[in-house]
Predict the 3D structure of the following.
Amino acid sequence: MVGETLKNPPRATSQARVSRPLPKRLLYSIFARIGGSGLDTDAFETLRASWRSGFLGKAVAYDNRQREIPASRIHSLRWHPVRLLSSLESPYYYGAKKKYLDWIAARHLASGRYDMFHSWSGDCLLSLREARKRGIPSLLEIPTWHRDRGKVKRAPAAPAPAEPRLPWRKRWKHDLLLNRERYLEEYDLATLVVVLSERAAETFRIQGFPEQRLFYLPRGVDVERFTPGERPPIFRAIFSGALIERKGVHHLLEAWHRLALKEAELWLVGTVHAEMEPYLEKFGSDNVKVMGFATEPEKYLRQSTIHVFPSQCEGSAKVTYEAAACGLPQITTREAGDVVEDGVQGIIVPPADVDALAGAIQYLYDHPEIVEHMSRAARERVVKNFTWDHFRARLLEAYRTAMIMAR
């Protein structure tokens, strides 16, 4: 794949890279805030790369919660007119906000002041069209997988009949939704498509997407904030993230209930969604503790023995970086990203496989010496490969690659 391998983390001082061109003025847009947690952190670290390298032009985002980058470089949409549509159902309001962000970014690009554009899938169709028209190289970041999730779409045997045209009162609302065709056109327009994991890249390869237009950019983690703690006196497994089916929490609850381990407990750190309540009622017990949403998940990770994250679809789950930085062996899936090497920093199981999940938990419960070895390997892997310094250096390489491809 285009980009860096984990065995060779990039060095910002490499003479070969210094001689390759970087942009002079970047426009960045994202359906998030700059500074904060989750995707907001990714946005901030992304902007740090261009700000510290001297080529950040402007960022368009829905708020600014950091102070390192001057506010004059952030076009904040905090007080946006789409608020007038906030009474709409979530998919319509969500789509309206994304399309407004896109419209603002496209207007910036039309000024002719930028020579690089970077945005996220679903956020930037108009902007990418404008960039293509002006010959501006672009990066399109994919938060999870290809829109078709690795499934090859078969061509219909006969043309589908034309859908009846909706009356205006219904059509304006329907047009706010983000349809599949929008995402596919964005993929075609972007100079370089940025994927967060090998599994995500594979969903593009299955669709026949050109390998040379894929760039592998795993995330980073603050290794000063997320650090190992003391091993708890009992075996404590932790899940950190939204408690939803997509992340496999229901499978974890079933596996844990089946095992009935002694001197062990399961912590669930995250917001409980309605879809998970029946599983908590069915598989809940005294040794399953729901901790709720945590602004400082590292406090819980440091008190745990292992991290279990059996997600069925992610780009590259940030919690897997955080847990590894805290020295936790992990039981996870390849769908969650590339932080864990099977048998080295943890155990990789197939998604939705309760038997495999239960077997992996039992194995680490029975082998505390393996847990200790994996713990050291987990911390070492993120320090050597997944700091935010690594992320920013890889991102600069992505910009250089896009600049060369657009020549």
In short: DSSP finds 14 helices and 13 strands in the chain.
